[in-house]
Amino acid sequence: MRVNIRELIPKHKQDYERVEQLKTKTLEEIKPILPELLEWLQDMNWPIAQDIENIVFTFDNTVFTLQATTLGLSGV
To answer: Is pLDDT of 76 > 50?
Structure first.
């Protein structure tokens, strides 16, 4: 059974169940929801923030390129 990747976006600050599922996904699978995952880094005091950071920064170059593109920055 294939999971809709959007279903894995954490719903609350202690949504460890979704975070654990995200850890099993590849970059290609989570790329469509990276902007939503980056939102969880706004406050590193949130319980799942560190786990999300670890997931996102596994793909560091891609994330920074996507973030720069989203912000309209060029030359990255």
So the answer is: no
d(CA 11, CA 39): 12
Q: Give 36-63 pLDDT, tens digit per residue.
A: 998 999 999 999 999 999 998 877 665 5
44 within domain boundaries: yes
CATH number at residue 56: 1.25.40.750
Q: Which of 41, 51, 66 is nearest to 18 (CA)?
A: 51
Q: Judge whether 68 and 41 are in contact, CB under 8 Å.
A: no
Q: Rounded to the nearest 5°, which phi and psi values hold at 51? A: -65, -40
